[in-house]
Amino acid sequence: MESLWNDAEAARYVTDVALRVYTSRLLGRDSTLVLHGGGNTSVKAKSRNAVGEAEDILHVKGSGWDLETIEEAGFAPVRTAHLLKLARLEALSDPQMMNELATQVTRAGAPAPSVEAILHAILPYQYVDHTHADALLAITNTPDGERRAREIYGMDTVIVPYVMPGFDLARQCARQFAAEARADTIGMVLLNHGIFSFGATARESYERMIALVGRAEAYLARHGAWALPQPKADAGAPVLRLELARLRRDLSDSAGFALVLATHSAPKYLDFARRSDVAALSQQGPATPDHVIRTKRVPMLGRDVGAYAGAYRDYFNRHARPAKAPRTMLDPAPRVVLDPAFGMACAGRTARDARIVHDIYAHTVDVILRAAALGGYRALPERDIFDVEYWDLEQAKLKKAGASPVFAGEAALVTGAASGIGKACVEALLKRGAAVIGLDVNADVVQLMGGRVDFLGVRCDVTSERDVTDALEAGVRAFGGVDMLVLNAGVFPGGQRIDALKSEEWRRVMSINLDANLALMRECHPLLKLAPRGGRVVIIGSKNVPAPGPGAAAYSASKAALTQLARVAALEWGVDRIRVNTLHPNAVFDTAAWTDEVLAARAAHYGVSVEDYRKGNVLKVEVTSRDVAELAAELCGPLFAKTTGAQLPVDGGNDRVI
C-alpha cells in the first residue's frame, strides 16, 4: 500500500464533499481495495435547507456508483439526525430501512443511499472509508482469522464478528464501538467482510486506510503468504472454440437466457484450475459475501452444467425452506468455470457483466492462495452466503429489473467492420446489446470502438483461412460463440468491360466477394448451430444482382453467386435453426470509396447535381450505411424470426430492379 494523496491535486477540491470525492477516487484506483461498486465512503457536513435551518447531512456513496469514477452527484445527502434515531431501534427490516433512508434524502434525483448509511452515521468521525481489501480478507478467511486480526491491529482497531450488512450490522458495530473504542481508535475490522477507517479530514481517513491495509500486507509477508508463486507458462493454446461454444450453450440453457462467456487462459488461471487441491480451495465460498451476487457461491469445476445446476437447487432448497419469507430461486447456472484445458471462463448477461465476474474472481484467486499459504482458506458458512445472495434488497432489484436489450447475451461477427456499412453494422448491433467481433484487413479495426469491453476488433484477411480460423478462436474465447454473422467485406473494382477483364482481377474479386464468404460460412456453421436463440446470417449483396450494369462483370457475378450461396444455405441450415437472409443496397455514398471528388465526377457524367445524384432513386432519398446496418440488425431480431431465404432491397427503389 502506498498513499496516492497529492497536494496539488487535492487543492482543486475545496469543499468537504469535493474532498470526499477526491479520496474516494484514490481508493477506487486500487482494485485490491474495491471492485465494481464495492466499498463505501461518506462525509458529514452541515447544510442549510430552504427555510434557512441548519442540518447535519451525511453524504454517503449512492447505489450504482463506483468509487473510481464517483462524482458529487454520486453521494446521497441524508439527514444525520434521523439516521441516529433509526440506530436506536431494536429492529428494522432492510426494506423498511431503505424506505426510511429514501424519505430523508434532501436532493431530488439523488441515488439510493448505501445500505450501510446508518453504520456510517453512528461512527463519530467526519470522514469514514470502507473497503474490501484483499490482504485483510486473505487473513480473516482462515480458521484462526480473528486471532490473526487481533494480533495485527492490537488495541487501535475494533474487531467485529461477521454480521450480514444492513441494520443488524449497524447495531452490532454501534454496541461494540461504544464499548471498545478509545481515543486512539483509527479503524474497524469486519471479519470476512472488510475494513473501516475514519478521521477528522479526508486525508487522515484515507491514509489511515492505506496504513491499516499495509499492516495486513506486512503480516502476510512476514508469514510467507504475500508473494504468490509464479505460474508456469503454458506450452500452447489448444483450439477450443467448439468446446467453448458448446459449454456456453449449456450454460445459457441452464440459465434460461443467453450468456456471454469470456475465457481467460493466462498461466495464473491455468495453474489454479490444475491444482490438485482446487476443489478444496474453490468450493468453500467467496472472499466476501458481497461477491456472491456476481459470481455465485462457488465456481463450477469442469463442464458438467447439469450437475452444477442440480447442486445449486439443493443449496437453494436447504436454505430457502427455513427462511422467514418466501424466496424466488435465481437461475442455477454458474458464473465462473474452472477447467484444466482453458483455465477460467466467466459468464454474464453482457460482456461487461462477464468482465466484472472475471475481475472479482481474479482477486478471489489471490485471496485464496494467500490464505492457503497462511494456514488454509476458509470462507463463511454457506448459510451466510445464501442470506446475502437472497437478501430482500436483492430480490426487490430482480422484481424491478427492466427488459434486457434484444441481443443481450449474444455475439455477432461482422466482416469489413472498419468502415462504411460494416462499421455501421457494428454500431447497430452494439446498440441492441450484442457483443461484436469485427474483422477487417485494416488494422484500425482493433481500436475501432475505443477499447469497449463488448467489442473485439481483429485484423483479418478474410481470404486467408488461417486468419479466419484464428479470428474465430479469438472471438469465441472473448464472447463464447457466434450467434449472428454479417458478411459485408467485399471489393468493387474499377469499371472494366468483359473484353478487358483480366483473369487475375476476376479471381481476386471472386476470392474476396465469394470464396472468403464460403469459408466464413462453413467455419461459422457449427458455432451458429450452437447459438442459444438460433443462428442468423445476413449477407450484404448488391443491387447489381437483380440489375447488373456494364463494366461490373466480376463484381456483379460474385455478388450473384454469393446470393445463390445464401439461398442454398437457407435451405440446408433451416433444420439447424439458422436463418439466412440477404440485403441488396445501392448507391451508399457515405463510404471511403465515395470521395467528394468521385461523387462530383459521377454527377457531372450524368449531367445532374451531386444532390440529385445522391437521391437518384424512385423515392428520391439518400441511402446511408446506417440505413443498411439498421435493417441488417433487424433481420437478426425477433421481427424476422420466421423469415429465411429472403432478399430485401435497400436502395430507395430502383426502377430497373422494380
Task: Describe the 3D structure.
- By secondary structure, this protein is α/β, with parallel strands linked by helices.
- The chain folds into three domains: 7-222, Class II aldolase/adducin N-terminal domain (L-fuculose-1-phosphate Aldolase), CATH 3.40.225.10; 241-399, no CATH class; 411-588 and 623-650, NAD(P)-binding Rossmann-like Domain (Rossmann fold).
- It is 43% helix and 14% strand.
- The chain has 24 helices and 18 strands.
- The strands form three sheets. A seven-stranded mixed beta sheet has the order 3-2-1-4-7-6-5, sandwiched between helices.
- The longest helix is centred in the C-terminal third of the chain and has 27 residues, at 503-529.
- It starts with 6 loop residues before the first helix and ends in an 8-residue tail after the last strand.
- The mean pLDDT is 94.
Short summary:
This protein is an alpha/beta fold and 658 residues long.
Number of strands: 18
Oligomeric state of the chains present here: single chain
CATH superfamily of the largest domain: Class II aldolase/adducin N-terminal domain
CATH class of the largest domain: Alpha Beta
Radius of gyration from the alpha-carbon trace, in angstroms: 30 Å
Query: Order of strands in the sheet with the most strands?
Result: 3-2-1-4-7-6-5
CATH topology of the largest domain: L-fuculose-1-phosphate Aldolase
The N- and C-terminal alpha carbons lie at a distance of 71 Å
CATH architecture of the largest domain: 3-Layer(aba) Sandwich
